């Protein structure tokens, strides 16, 4: 095999030399032809030179935007640990093996680019790429899934392009350094993301390959913003209603079929023309949006993350672009090829052909034919290795691969801030997404999506703003620039239980729709729609089964003011109320719709329809005043009630029933008009509250946020100050056993030996007397409790026959409590007798050691 391999290599070397000679010969001939052509050209005159200079001066060369530099010169390496600046013996051995592996690979595959095995770190020390990964599980639950990890890396870091787009970087910095400076290229992004994903339990790998221009430059101007993609609506299949046996036949269609066919043909022609126009317009837009041809297509180096299926219930393999945090299929056309990939345990080279991008690649890393490994000891089950395979032959070296990178740590402040300087802007196709850190904006704005009509992003269609930590629970504001309609979405917890508020103006009595959280309201109101002349309310879950109320207003006489509904309410013309079915009532007595025609003084009722009927009963009352102009009472007559009953013979309503119903309806009309007036007042109060909240922009701060919560901070400082003062007070007021006796002596006088002895004796005698008094007090309480218990027992013996069960229960309860108290007193007395001598001796020893008496007492003894 070795001889055959050498032969093949010699033949390939000879072919390469012949090809190089032919290329050199062709280049020489081309240069000679160009020289001959130049000789044949005419000489340029002064006028031609001036014209050429003028044309060249008119050319404007676009100045490229400066990218924030992130080089080793900008990194402070003085505080880095020793593992960053030196290599251990095992790391040196690993680098030697990597060099040997690279030389073998270059010898066997000379047409492939060099491997990305051991780039320099920030301290100019070569490190194996697998040891640069530091698997870490972050202490934040939000960073447990791949999408949240990728989004954090994309938001937290600023993209720095590769120095040479055709080659991997010479330096690969540690993730701790990248997090510190919040900058990095695609390899730094992938290293950090892969470390977080492996720590979270994913089977993730860093990939060194080739990507499209948009992918390498993080250009999303030809991508649709994910926030603008509407979810697919599930189409509900309508169940076919079976025709009833006895149904009325529809009338015959007397229209001309010829005319219908001609009309259908005309409509089809119109639709075909419209489809053709739309198709042409779509093709024109696609041509305008199409990117210019990339001269370096397929050569641009890029790094991303590969996640294999299996772990963490990942169903299939997929790619993650760390720049944009978007996931792609392994068949996506943005990824043009793979050179190698690695994780924290091993390094693999792709031996498959990438002529069809990554679509035909098989990611079975246990197959040595498709993926050449560097180290033994891989955990892939499909790999069957022999002792003759190349790589490290000592499996302990693989198991002992340790990362030289420090522990990856993200502070809570950095995790909350996310974006560099708290702000990040992403440009999409016809959209712009802006992100801010929480509490950075005084109004709680954290994200804004602006959608445009054109590709140049000049005409705004709509704006969506997301808020957080608002005291008014505002979560989202949607502004439609075309219709000037604003829609506010609130989280649960608003003082007025608002859920959605759609409006064009904050002035009262204008077009608006207010939706409420029904469970937070007592009246069950769901939605209120208001126009200058109408107001409609929808209800659910009410005890009176009210579901709908529509009010028509008349023109107001006085001018509109802010408190018009209170001082000058709009005149009510008509009130329409609808009710759900009340199963406790028969259908012919359960009102389905009630209409108060206030201006016409009429009341209309429509009842629910019975299941076996096709029409419902109706009634109409003429609402007249109870007295006439002369003060006489008006008698209800049959002509004041117009009735249509489906079954008039079943229930014949008398005149008294009609009178009672009319009186009840008058009360209901007054109640409905009052509720309408209260609804108008509530709208005014809501608008006033929303206006105040919009002006103040109060943000809520958690009590656990000790840095921002001023109230909590002041309270904590006050508590600490009080505790400190209490501690000082306790120290100052600590009992001095000699203080009562030292007061008797003249101030400033020095103690004598006889005075010291006398102070000691007085202090001991006083303490002895206190111990005796305490023992007597406990003994007295013990005897008192015992005597009372004996008296109670004697009383029970005398009155045992006449006692009720309640009295016996009280007696037993008293005896139990008394015995408990006696037992406690007995224990305290015994404990006091045991400790009293010890306390006396401890005080005597303390007096001998007291600096004020100790020397004098020693001299006396």
Automatic annotation (TrEMBL):
Residues 420-702 form the Dynein regulatory complex subunit 7 MORN domain. InterPro entries: CEPT76/DRC7_peptidase-like_dom, DRC7/lobo, DRC7_C, MORN_DRC7, Papain-like_cys_pep_sf. Residues 301-374 form the CEP76/DRC7 peptidase-like domain. One of its GO terms (cellular component) is cytoplasm. The keyword Coiled coil applies. Residues 257-292 form a coiled coil. The keyword Cytoplasm applies. Belongs to the DRC7 family. PANTHER family: DYNEIN REGULATORY COMPLEX SUBUNIT 7. This is Dynein regulatory complex subunit 7. It comes from Aotus nancymaae (Ma's night monkey). The lineage of its organism: Eukaryota, Metazoa, Chordata, Craniata, Vertebrata. The gene is DRC7.
